[in-house]
Amino acid sequence: MSDLFTPLQLGAVETKNRIFMAPLTRCRADQDHVPTDMMVDYYAQRASAGLIIAEATMAMEGNSSFWREPGIYSQAQIDAWKKVTAAVHQEGGKIFLQIWHGGRTCHPVLNEGKQPVAPSALAITSDQANTPEGKLDYPEPRALQDQELPAIVEGFAQAAKNAREAGFDGVEIHAANGYLLDEFLRTSANKRSGPYGGSVENRARLLLEVVEAVAADWDEQHIGIRFSPLNSFNSMQDEDPVGLMTWLARRLNDYQLAYLHLMRADFKGQQQADILTPIRENYQGNLLVNMGYSPEEAKEVVAAGDADAVAFGVPFIANPDLPERIRQDAELNSADPKTFYTQGTRGYTDYPRLQDAVT
Predict the structure, then answer these.
(1) pLDDT, tens digit, for every residue of 36-66?
(2) How many CB atoms lie within 10 A of CB 315?
(3) Which CATH architecture has domain 8-358?
């Protein structure tokens, strides 16, 4: 029987515990999407996580969704990320980079007026974009042509190469939450015909091409993938989310991935299903689960063998020493949502550790 403090072999990486830090957009990069010194401190503070999965990071230039999110396409960004990974490793931690294309969430205001791209010309209607000009409606995206997709695949592959140069222990391919790869996977956003639309095999084609391109340079054991089959954020739905994920779970057994990262629920509560059971039954590799787990439930899930590790999001924002707090069954700090997407250190690197409270 495993517990949250049993080491886990995660592909090519061994983690010291099974309490992982979920990827969390915090908008603390500079206006050129270069990681800042406060990001070095932020991630180093949380190095006691079994694995840190760094925030959604632009694989390719000109695809910003959050204004101040980081990138991994320029040398300045690579050099800045080197400071982050060195600091995390100095503290004994492991860190993957989540590589990402925002698809139809890339608002023109954030991208020099450029129209966003997507599998189909369908706008997001359920949410609004956060921009320097305030909340704005999303425009209709341009449907990508099949011949444009190899460049996107190559963009992800180059991002992974850059992440490796920057000292990351691996990459997580972001195929969740209504961004480009998820848009191709799910039926509400993908109305294409041809080789990238229609059947689940076709809708998954772009993701699998990305996996294979990344693995060609950096072996499969340094790759994780994140999915959110139920999440309706960014106008996302699927006609058969359980069928989609069952197919993907079986297909991904063809690769020796580090892990599959599953968001189990819907932020908006519109779609409900048991998505965990069919994935656990069909996927033979490491399963990382996320979304609303308390420390108590996380202990139960891992002890029962229903998942191999649990990723915590908001609790890691407010508790840089979350594993130690869970070990001691100590009280958790509460996070301040007003500072989630601001640009300063307040609500970012100033949450107290247990040792600070004692002294």
Answers:
(1) 999 999 999 999 999 999 999 999 999 999 9
(2) 21
(3) Alpha-Beta Barrel (3.20)
